[in-house]
Design goal:
Layout lengths: L1 H30 L9 H68 L28 H5 L26 H16 L3 H14 L6 H14 L3 H14 L6 H14 L3 H14 L4 H15 L3
């Protein structure tokens, strides 16, 4: 009987100890946050630190790559800006040259060529006494021989109507108006006025000059195709005009502006060869030298 009682006591004590030990173990993570199994708060901090370090390294690398890419883009854009700036400076210089050249030519031609006048009819010759010679009255009264009658000829066609009489003063005023408009820098209006002049006076005294200034106005407006056609018409229709050397020069300039440097060189050399003592030849030599400096 005594043995059973002791055994039961020992059993109860063991059970109580097991319950108390389990409770102690269950409460340990809260009482002792740093355990020996590696699952404590210190290991979590280390893992967070390692994750932050890894993320930080990846972010820095990504940012470095992006910065390098942006730097390359900036360099490319800077090169583009410099190239565009160079092209803009070149265009401005060429435009100034166009205006300057036209201005010099306008000043040189500020006084248009004088109008042609009809020479007076020569008077009948007189002898030493001041009286006109007398013709033989007999010779004047001899009738012509009578031709044999023939069949009536067909009536000749009526003569063409007489050309309208052009008032030189009106023609000169029209030319001067267009010329003054060009001097004022109103190139579009000058084109209109010179086109009207050559249409109304296709063979007037100043028609060759009108074609030249019309082409110059096109040139300054950078309408190179119209300028080329007009300079060529001047050369073709007025080969003896004093404007022909300058027209050849400007054809070379037009090819230069269009980037056709081979054609420009050929035309400019032709001006130098064909008109060696002209101002056009001197300007052609200057442009050829400039092309050599520009490696064209």
């Amino acid at each position: 009987m005594m043995t059973k009682t002791k055994f039961a006591g020992w059993m109860a004590a063991g059970l109580a100890y097991a319950v108390l030990a389990g409770a102690e173990t269950y409460d340990r993570p809260y009482d002792q946050p740093y355990d020996q199994a590696g699952y404590g708060a210190s290991t979590l901090d280390e893992r967070v630190a390692r994750l932050e370090k890894r993320l930080s390294g990846e972010t820095l690398m990504e940012m470095a790559n992006r910065i390098e890419k942006l730097q390359g883009e900036v360099l490319r854009l800077r090169g583009t800006v410099e190239e565009l700036s160079h092209e803009l400076d070149k265009a401005k210089r060429q435009q100034r040259e166009m205006y300057g050249d036209l201005d010099q030519r306008l000043k040189a031609a500020a006084t248009p060529p004088p109008m042609m006048t009809v020479p007076p009819v020569a008077a009948a010759p007189t002898d030493a006494t001041g009286t006109p010679p007398v013709t033989d009255p007999g010779a004047a009264t001899v009738p012509p021989p009578v031709a044999a009658p023939s069949a009536p000829a067909a009536a000749p066609p009526p003569p063409p109507p007489p050309a309208p009489v052009v008032d030189p003063a009106v023609r000169q005023a029209a030319y001067q108006k267009a010329f003054n408009t060009l001097k004022e820098g109103k190139y579009t209006e000058a084109i209109r006025d010179f086109k009207g002049y050559v249409a109304n006076y296709p063979s007037g005294d100043n028609t060759d000059s009108a074609y030249y200034w019309l082409a110059e106005a096109y040139y300054v407006n950078r309408d190179f195709n119209s300028a080329r056609d007009t300079f060529r018409k001047l050369i073709r229709d007025f080969p003896k005009s004093a404007k022909v050397p300058d027209a050849h020069l400007k054809l070379g300039f037009i090819e230069y502006e269009n980037g056709q440097y081979g054609a420009a060189r050929e035309l400019l050399n032709s001006v130098v060869k064909s008109y060696p003592d002209s101002s056009a030849a001197k300007m052609a030599e200057k442009r050829l030298e400039r092309m050599r400096q520009e490696k064209h």
